[in-house]
TrEMBL record:
The lineage of its organism: Bacteria, Pseudomonadati, Bacteroidota, Sphingobacteriia, Sphingobacteriales. Keywords: Membrane, Symport, Transmembrane, Transmembrane helix, Transport. GO terms for biological process: iron ion transmembrane transport. It is a multi-pass membrane protein. The keyword Transmembrane helix applies. GO terms for cellular component: plasma membrane. It comes from Pedobacter antarcticus 4BY. It is found in: Membrane. This is Iron transporter.
């Protein structure tokens, strides 16, 4: 059984890690708020977020495979500096705030498990462990660790079975949308969209696919040299055919990987809303402001086992998401300023790249010392993500339909339909987000 699990995890690519990292502690907090405040009323959103997320992440992955560079490098090559720096202006602060909120959430739930140890001590400890893994583990092992951490997300699928939901009501809430035309409910829908379709995932997915395809190309070049040494010379057209076939296989595998990753992400969202909507809403607990409150609130309702599962899941997802967040930020900044480095390189070979990771994680930790609460950090993060997403999605669609960049691998009709649907939904969400901020 263990061998089969290892084989399965080895076959998975960046899509699964990307999807799993989307369900970070801040995301879990948002889904918990939705469940506690509105019960099962927002379960239907998974039917919208899954196809939209899958479409956008597939576009990002294909861009990474075809260009073999990160999204920031593609922006730098083909767009004005204004667009590039605008993305940095919005993305970098949002990612750092997201990191800070996640570290705080991890420390808080660890404190609930071990009350004798202060939450900030856990936050510092988790930060040190994360930096050690990111800096000293080779990329291949680093990705393997992330894949195993994806298994912690399965804990959220287990939790609802402790709360014994009415499955008939669950099916009804899932397939018959409930919409309340009030500011708070619309705001919750906007928060769910902003949490699931986040710009940092675009940069990470593209960069990781680019890393993978570069590794494949290096192996292909080695094989070509061996073939030439053995005297088996192929024509240019034959080599081109083989390369096209290889790219087709990579894109096919990538599609399955991305769809599986986004499915996992949305399943966790679904079951988190279900768990808190069943255990908390029905008991009159309507307000959940932090992840630790969600974990604590489940204990008297669903038993200590449910509470422990929830808390351990938060810590596991934090270890999964923070490397993705800090890695995304480092790729953005390093590619912008032309600094050489990636996760394949050791620390001494890419000091600026790893310095950005260290600085972003440390600043995220320090935010918890200067009076910015995790709740405020989540709010500011959602605002910045909500404003940035439509612009980046529009650029992604332009890149994915540009034959000069993508060659024969431009968007198909389905990718364009879902991509423009995502752009429309996120643009409307951004407008609502701004409206809600000025009317609250």
């Amino acid at each position: 059984m263990l061998r089969k699990v290892k084989k399965f995890l080895k076959a998975l690519g960046p899509g699964v890690v990307t999807g799993a990292s989307d369900d970070d502690p801040s995301g879990i907090a948002t889904y918990s708020q939705a469940g506690a405040k509105y019960g099962l009323a927002t379960l239907w959103t998974v039917l919208i977020t899954f196809p939209l997320m899958a479409a956008i992440q597939e576009i990002c992955a294909r861009i990474g495979l075809v260009t073999a560079v990160g999204l920031t490098t593609t922006l730098k090559k083909h767009y004005s500096k204004f667009v590039l720096y605008l993305m940095i202006l919005f993305s970098v602060p949002a990612i750092i705030l997201n990191i800070g909120a996640d570290i705080a959430g991890m420390g808080a739930v660890a404190h609930l498990i071990f009350p004798a140890v202060h939450a900030m001590i856990f936050s510092v400890l988790f930060t040190a462990i994360l930096l050690f893994f990111i800096i000293y583990l080779p990329y291949s092992k680093f990705v393997s660790v992330l894949k195993y951490l994806c298994l912690t997300l399965l804990l959220y699928i287990i939790v609802p079975f402790f709360t014994k939901p009415d499955w008939g009501a669950v099916l009804k809430a899932t397939f018959i949308p409930t919409i309340k035309w009030d500011k708070d409910f619309i705001g919750m829908l906007v928060a769910i969209l902003g949490t699931t379709i986040s710009p940092y995932l675009f940069f990470w997915q593209t960069a990781m696919e680019a890393e993978d395809v570069k590794a494949v190309k290096r192996q292909v070049m080695i094989n070509k040299r061996l073939v030439n040494i053995n005297g088996d010379h192929r024509t240019r057209s034959e080599n081109k055919t083989r390369e096209n076939r290889l790219m087709g296989l990579l894109i096919q595998k990538m599609g399955l990987d991305v769809n599986l990753g986004m499915l996992l992400s949305n399943m966790i969202m679904f079951f988190t809303i279900l768990a808190t909507g069943t255990a908390l809403y029905s008991q009159g607990i309507r307000q959940i402001d932090t992840v630790e409150q969600a974990a604590k609130a489940l204990e008297p309702v669903a038993g200590r086992a449910s509470y422990l599962l929830f808390a351990l899941g938060v810590i596991g997802t934090g270890f999964l998401a923070i490397p993705v967040l800090s890695g995304s930020l480092s790729y953005i900044v390093s590619e912008t300023f032309g600094w050489k480095g990636n996760l394949d390189k050791k620390f001494h070979q890419a000091k600026p790249f790893y310095a950005i990771i260290i600085i972003s994680v440390v600043i995220g930790l320090l935010l918890n010392y200067i009076g910015i609460s995790p709740v405020d950090a989540l709010l500011y993060t959602a605002i910045l993500y909500g404003l940035t997403s439509p612009v980046i999605i529009a650029i992604l669609l332009h890149i994915a339909n540009n034959k000069k960049i993508m060659g024969e691998y431009t968007n198909g009709k389905l990718s364009n339909f879902l991509g423009f649907a995502t752009l429309l939904v996120m643009s409307v969400s951004a407008v609502f987000l701004i409206y809600l901020q000025f009317t609250s």
